[in-house]
Amino acid sequence: MKLGFIGGGKMAAALIKGVLKSGICTPADVTVSDVHAPAVEKLRGETGVTIAASNAEVVGASEVIILAVKPGDALAAIQGLTAQQMESSMRWAWQGGGGKTSKLLISIVAGLSLATLEKAAGEKLRIIRVMPNTPALILAGASAFATGTLATDADADIAQKIFGGIGIALRVKESLLDAVTGLSGSGPAYVYTIIEALADGGVLMGLPRDLALQLAAKTVAGAAEMVLQTGLHPAVLRDQVASPGGTTIAGIEAIESGGLRASLIAAVRAASERSATLGSGK
Ligand SMILES: NC(=O)c1ccc[n+]([C@@H]2O[C@H](COP(=O)([O-])OP(=O)(O)OC[C@H]3O[C@@H](n4cnc5c(N)ncnc54)[C@H](OP(=O)(O)O)[C@@H]3O)[C@@H](O)[C@H]2O)c1
């Protein structure tokens, strides 16, 4: 699949490395443009993908284009593209545009609605909005996506293939994507904080830092796999290890009195609300 990236920053790099690892694309299939040249030069050195001189060149070389710039840059990027492509022999073909090759735009931009994207593109593009996360880099991503007015089920299959190949990809109503952003889009950062805090606890109790970090990270990964693989509710799994008068229930008492649960719920709420605010341009 010929895949193009407009914006070659952190999330694009994670996605590119993920699709190359998964075998969905070879380096020759991937073209990237970015206004920040040093970032993409590093990416080219690491992955062998092609760096384009312009966003229009990415569009010309790709069947599927992933918009991976910051929210504040997204509309200008699309509007610039649309104008360029309309001026230049219409290689960016609209659906039903006289038999020309039709391209799919996938936006990973936080907060930016399909309606706003479609309006910026002159209501003529097939668009899918995806919220991925950075563990896509190691094929452990969690993504959710919603389809725009002109996107077809075949387009949804393409999004499923790309994002399902680098983790899980779930199709949702667009109205859920701010909440997805607050949970899984931003979630890796919450979990890194938890891992660091667990390791700090280990260090406090005398463990060497590197040992504590390894134990903390593997404990989080193992507990997550237990939830995914057993299908059991986390509360059931927790009760299984909290024996009466034991060590675990003593730790859980400290967690509850420290408010970890309320903090995490508030984190998802704050990030979801921030996503909605970004979408309104603030
Ligand atoms: N990072 C995450 O965990 C994550 C998770 C889910 C979704 N996302 C979404 O992914 C998008 C990218 O995030 P990121 O963290 O990868 O940001 P980033 O590292 O800042 O990357 C964006 C890149 O796009 C470049 N750029 C800006 N305007 C451009 C244009 N018109 N044409 C081509 N390139 C342009 C930027 O250059 P300059 O720096 O010079 O402006 C920057 O190098 C955001 O919308 C974010 O909401 C990110």
Unreliable runs, pLDDT <50, ≥5 residues?
A: 86-99
Query: Approximately how much helix is present in the residues?
Result: 55-70%
Number of domains: 2
* Rg, Å, rounded: 21 Å
CATH architecture of the largest domain: 3-Layer(aba) Sandwich
Q: What summary fits the major beta sheet?
A: 8 strands, mixed
Distance between the termini: 36 Å
**CATH class division of the largest domain:** Alpha Beta
Query: Helices and strands, in N-to-C order?
Result: EHEHEHEHEHEEHEHHHHHH
Number of discrete helical segments? 12
Form type: elongated
Which class of secondary structure composition applies to the elements? alpha/beta
Hetero groups in this structure are: NADP nicotinamide-adenine-dinucleotide phosphate
Mean pLDDT: 91
Task: Say how many strands there are.
Answer: 8
Strand residue content: 5-15%
Topology, please?
Elements: E1 3-6, H1 10-22, E2 30-33, H2 37-47, E3 50-51, H3 55-61, E4 64-67, H4 71-87, E5 104-107, H5 114-120, E6 126-131, E7 141-147, H6 153-164, E8 167-171, H7 177-185, H8 187-204, H9 209-230, H10 234-241, H11 247-258, H12 260-279
Parallel strand pairs: 1-2, 1-4, 2-3, 4-5, 5-6, 7-8
Antiparallel strand pairs: 6-7
Helix pairs in contact: 7-12, 8-9
This protein binds NADP nicotinamide-adenine-dinucleotide phosphate.
